[in-house]
Specification:
Largest sheet: 6 strands, mixed
Distance between the termini: 47 Å
Strand content: 5-15%
Radius of gyration: 24 Å
Number of helices: 19
Shape: globular
Number of strands: 10
Strand order of the largest sheet: 3-2-1-4-5-6
Structural class: alpha/beta
Amino acid sequence: MTGQKSYILFYYGTWLATYYSSLARYLRGSGEIGSILVTLGNDRLPNPDQFEFATSDFDDTIDISSILEARSVENLPLRSELTARAQVYERRYGVNLNDVLRVDRHFGIGFVTGAKFMRPKIDHVTSYEQRLDVAIRMFDYFEALFDRYKFLAWVGVPSTIGSAVIACVGASHGVPMRRLEISSFGKKLFWSDNWEATPLNLEAKYGELVSQEQRDEAHPDHVDKDLVASEFNVSMPYRSAQKRDGFKAFSTISYLVYRFAFMARWAFSKAVRRKSWQYGDYLLSSRFAQEWRQWIWHRRTLREPSTMEQVVDGTPYVFLPLHVEPEVTLMVDAFNYNHQLAYVDWLVKSLPAGWRLVVKEHFGSTCPRPAGFWDQLAAYPNVLIAATLDSADEILQHSRAVATINGTVGLQAAI
């Protein structure tokens, strides 16, 4: 292990990682804690002129792009050897290597069942065995890295094969994880400390709020109404409101032309700069097809008649808002419960007789659902499909219960 100095390991994987440089600079100023940056390549780091990001703020920068390059089939170990090595790591870390693959929307896109998303480049040129081999080599690398450095914590989101491996190796070494998150409400950042993105001290804070509410109910004359409103009013997140308000604009022909032109310019720029990534990029034809499907979906959604009269006709119901796929909220934060059709199937068979399950699409969906998805939902006799643009707040207010895997509506219902 390198000396006695302690380090923080940073995994650059999301736009919030632009804050890592400032934090590393602060740590370096303390003189006691160093920092190591893991990247997918220096050409993917932010422009220092725009984000004040500098690799010089870190003690070391590690590029893992070569590990992400799949070996040719001819150079792979025998399938039996590959399986045996995978089992070694599964026993050592208590994790299924399939879980390491499926949190990654490039290596694990085939595990996504609730969306017809564009296909990554890597998906077209690698086999399942090649992806397992990448995961195993990633474990080999980070095991050696954790033996070399004394890490106090690692910072990142386990939403790629690299960061998921770091999470597993780090946990075995007693190295805690910290995720930098952006608040859904207001302009704030906060830390979470696990795969599920649970904010630090969430349980204690929620308990305080519930206790305050119970005290207010017992002594209504002493309630500070302004305080209660500020603490308990959970409205639609700003980013979601933007998507809702701009929904109609996204369905215009001018917007489609703009998007096609933007992608063409972007592709030309990459070609001129000779930037081409196998991992982390999508086929250009798939990007155009995705944009077309999404545009068609917007136009069809605008023609959907409101279902509010059917929803609030007095029949008791459970409200189930669907989640966007593929997205970190399902693939990472709730990766053990991310099959939405299976979730619906369990719910509709568990409801009391006479109750309904009201299912509503997320208007911020980034791609249409796969073929047969809506037909399967409509086939259940106790399911009502709400219009995409119907008010989720109104549906929530009239519901007897809310079912959600991981979403803001669940927070609204709890509060």
